[in-house]
Specification:
It is a single chain. Helices cover 44% and strands 12% of the residues. It is an alpha+beta fold. The protein has a single domain, classed as Multidrug-efflux Transporter Regulator, Chain: A, Domain 2 (Orthogonal Bundle), CATH 1.10.1660.10. A two-stranded antiparallel sheet has the order 1-2. A two-stranded antiparallel ribbon has the order 3-4. The N and C termini lie far apart (59 Å).
Length: 112
């Protein structure tokens, strides 16, 4: 990730711009849902996000820098990948047991 800063001269002043990311963008980068990122922030596993607070009603918007996204990518790369676990092979005995359990639940549901 680059630390490139863009400098824009505006009316005898200079405005420095750096790429910022929303929680939705970061969630796509780290392949996790935004709620997962929020949960790990609340638990203290990820640093508290920076927020926009200019009084325009955007004070609750989180924003992240490239460094924040990189830190999250490192954090989540050591964890179990998102999504369902890979299918494990089950034995015939386990399969029959699952079928019996489902049949019992179905009969119970139909009788109510």
């Amino acid at each position: 990730m680059s630390d490139e800063v863009i400098e824009l001269p505006i009316d005898n002043a200079h405005l420095f711009l750096k790429r910022l990311y929303t929680i939705g963008e970061v969630s796509k980068i780290v392949q996790r849902k935004p709620d997962t990122i929020r949960r790990y922030e609340r638990l203290g596993h990820l640093s508290e996000p920076k927020r926009i607070s200019d009084g325009s009603g955007l004070k609750n918007w989180r924003y992240y820098t490239e460094e924040d996204a990189s830190d999250m990518l490192t954090f989540f790369s050591g964890r179990k990948p998102p999504g369902r676990p890979p299918n494990k092979k089950i034995t015939n005995k386990e399969l029959r047991s699952k079928i019996r359990t489902l049949s019992t639940k179905a009969k119970k549901y139909r009788s109510n």
